[in-house]
Amino acid sequence: MIVERSKTALITGASTGIGAAFARQLAADGMNLILVARSEDKLKALAQELANAHQIRADVIAADLAKLEEVARVIAETRGMGSEIHLLINNAGFGTSGKFEDQDPAREQEEILLNVAALVSLTHAFLPGMLARRAGGIIQVASIAGFQPVPYMAIYGATKAFVLSFSEALWAEYRGRGVKVLALCPGPVDTPFFEIAKAHDMALGKMDTAENVVATALKAIERGKSYVIPGPISNRILTFLTRLGSRANVARLTERMMRPKAKGQG
Ligand SMILES: NC(=O)c1ccc[n+]([C@@H]2O[C@H](COP(=O)([O-])OP(=O)(O)OC[C@H]3O[C@@H](n4cnc5c(N)ncnc54)[C@H](OP(=O)(O)O)[C@@H]3O)[C@@H](O)[C@H]2O)c1
To answer: For the chain, which residues make up each domain, given as ranges?
Structure first.
């Protein structure tokens, strides 16, 4: 079992959105938690609420995971707590949107460091313990954006393609050794994500809830799936269609779907 009472889950990006929903569900299932994000106040409030409500242990490590030295500190502090990480949820991430030439290169570097480098480092840190115990799971939060290039969110799509590819490779490497790895690939979810990505005029359709994403992910990892796409069937159809066209046609079509509206077009 991956979700197991009294075992510990480490969740990055636990202060809001999908990460906070994971924390709530796992606490209700009796797991102890280590919550990581930059917003210490939000993490502490959530940890206290969940510890009181479910008689679990909930620790907080405030850290900026876009900084390599902070990732190393999270790993060291976690080891210092003496808890074995049974479930690692690499969820912290953000997107940038708009024309590539208009992007702030420093912000894009942060996006790559957070969405990719931190995720790899934390996986490196906690996978060996799981292998030694022949038990544990890793949920890597990718996206449906990882299945094809995403013009006007080029860096974001590329980071999520990395996460998807990396996670599926690990799933195949470790499936016989007691460790489950899942790439979680949501479509649009109602969280602060789009506000932060400044993706206001994107046609998103009906958004999924963070709670549904979490429930789908936890079911999928228990079943040993390599990836899962929660939400409406349209999410799964979209990713399937990208396998049918030529790579150039898929990129051209996505460019048309994602093209920012010219000002005044409404
Ligand atoms: N919402 C969607 O439509 C959607 C769809 C597919 C995939 N996803 C993925 O789902 C994951 C969670 O996103 P969300 O939708 O829940 O968005 P969110 O509500 O904006 O949550 C992002 C989380 O990451 C944390 N974070 C951001 N920068 C960080 C940094 N430098 N260091 C440490 N933590 C940081 C944030 O906390 P602090 O600000 O406190 O640091 C927050 O807890 C992301 O990987 C995202 O790419 C989202």
So the answer is: 8-258
Q: Cβ < 6 Å from ligand 1: which residues?
A: 13-19, 37-39, 64-66, 91-95, 114, 141, 143, 186, 188-189, 191-193, 196
Query: 221-260: per-residue pLDDT in tens?
Result: 999 999 999 999 999 999 999 999 999 999 999 999 999 8
Q: Of all protein residues, whose CA lies closest to atom 25 belonging to ligand 1?
A: 13
CB 205 within 8 A of CB 234: yes
Q: Which long-range contacts (CB under 8 A, 24 or more apart) does 214-220 make?
A: 214/18, 214/21, 214/22, 214/25, 215/25, 217/22, 217/139, 217/182, 217/184, 218/2, 218/3, 218/25, 220/182, 220/184
> Which residues are CB-neighbours of 123 under 8 A, at least 6 positions away?
88, 90, 138, 140, 170
CA distance 118 to 57: 24
Superfamily covering domain 8-258: NAD(P)-binding Rossmann-like Domain (3.40.50.720)
Asked if residue 223 lies in contact with residue 182, where contact means CB atoms within 8 angstroms, the answer is no
Q: How far is the CA of 51 from the centre of ligand 1 (A)?
A: 23
Tell me which residues are annotated as active site.
156
Which atom of ligand 1 lies at the shortest distance from residue 115's CA?
A: 45
Strands 32-37, 8-12: parallel, antiparallel or unpaired by DSSP? parallel
Query: Which atom of ligand 1 is found nearest the CA of 19?
Result: 16
Lowest-pLDDT range, 54-58, 93-97, 240-244, 260-264? 260-264
Residue 9 contacts residue 1 (beta carbons within 8 Å): no
- Across 148-175, average pLDDT: 98
Across the chain, what does the average pLDDT equal? 95
Is pLDDT of 103 > 60?
yes
